Amino acid sequence: MPLLPFLSRRRRPHAATRSAAPSATRFATRSAAHGLAAIACLATALAAALPIDARAAVSVVDDAGQTIMLAQPARRIVSLAPHVTEMLFAAGGGDRIVGTVNYSDYPPEARAIARVGDNKALDLERIAALKPDLIVVWRHGNAQKQTERLRALGLPLFHSEPRRLMAVPDNIEKLGVLLGTGPTAHAAAERLRARIAALGKAHAARPPVSVFYQVWQQPLMTLNGQHMVSDMLALCGGRNVFADETPLVPTISVEAVLARNPEAMITASMGATQSDRPLADFAQWQRWQQLTAVARGNLFTIDGDLINRAGPRAIDAAEILCRQLEVARSRRPAQ
User: Which structural domain, as residue segments, surrounds residue 139?
Assistant: First the structure.
């Protein structure tokens, strides 16, 4: 038999082999497809399980107009103002605060956080040792030279200084972006926005009440129209009699108050946070019975922890303020 024809001749596979081969191929193909799908599902599950900060860069614009960009959401945060601490908790990041300042005592969990100074003096070495990946500062409340030294260390700074009530929920949402806790921060912000909108709607048509807000008495100080307290007053149908002053916290005279004759006077009272100096009161005004506010007994105080902090509880202060202005309206002589 010729060798070549023998080599060229093909053996026909057994019938069982012929039928099994395609089945095996189809099984292998299906198994591979299922395996890839399983891997894809596992990858998706793992990605969802990973902290958001392990996945994407984030950026926001702060109250100083500066863009803050982080390679990933912050895990270690230093808060340099009590209102900032409250905002961070509201945004879902309270457990990420590794350092804060004196008087950061709300919510109660904040009292256990390490202190790094106060608004006048910061322990810069301790702040650096905490290795924060974000520092949130009070734009005009912290010592600028010290915050600039922190910036020089390459630490990202977010400046927070809400001047309007609606800026409070806006700040919370921005912090949520930087923390990677967007859904929690958004939900908290929306609740605050709803409360602010409800106050505005309820008092939009109420008769205006002229108000003097007393910050300090020696020297006598107040707030101008750019301060959040003026925004609260406007929301409640009130009018700041010193809104037109140029400094944010102007020094004024008793004669100026007498000339503007406010219908109501308001000042901060002692809250849960104990002050190291006595707060302003209305004792000196009792001698001026010609003032409408004094004559009608419209001398109101609000918990200083609420009205002096531009955080979530500022909306609580606004609600109290609105009720107080309603009392002032009720004391008007019958027409």
Answer: 58-192
Do residues 97 and 80 touch, judged by C-beta distance below 8 A? no
Residue 190, phi then psi, degrees to nearest 5: -65, -35
Residue 233, helix vs strand vs coil: helix
324: nearest Cα among 334, 335, 306: 306
Note if the pTM is more than 0.85. no
Phi, psi of 159 (to 5 degrees): -90, 125
Domain check: are 168 and 225 in the same one? Answer: no
The one-digit pLDDT tens for each residue of the chain (335 residues) are 333 332 333 334 444 444 444 444 444 444 444 443 443 444 344 344 444 444 589 999 999 999 999 999 999 999 999 999 999 999 999 999 999 999 999 999 999 999 999 877 899 999 999 999 999 998 666 677 888 888 888 889 999 999 999 999 999 999 999 999 999 999 999 999 999 999 999 999 999 999 999 999 989 999 999 999 999 999 999 999 999 999 999 999 999 999 999 999 999 998 777 666 666 789 899 999 999 999 999 999 999 999 999 999 999 999 999 999 999 999 999 87
Residue 177, C-beta contacts closer than 8 angstroms, at least 6 positions apart? 58, 59, 60, 73, 185
Which CATH number belongs to the domain containing residue 100 in this structure?
3.40.50.1980
User: Does 232 lie in the same domain as 188?
Assistant: no
- Number of Cβ within a 10 Å radius of residue 183: 10
Indicate if 137 and 71 belong to the same structural domain.
Answer: yes
Q: Do 175 and 83 contact (CB within 8 A), yes or no?
A: no
What gap in Å lies between CA 332 and CA 209, rounded to an integer?
10
Domain count, the chain: 2
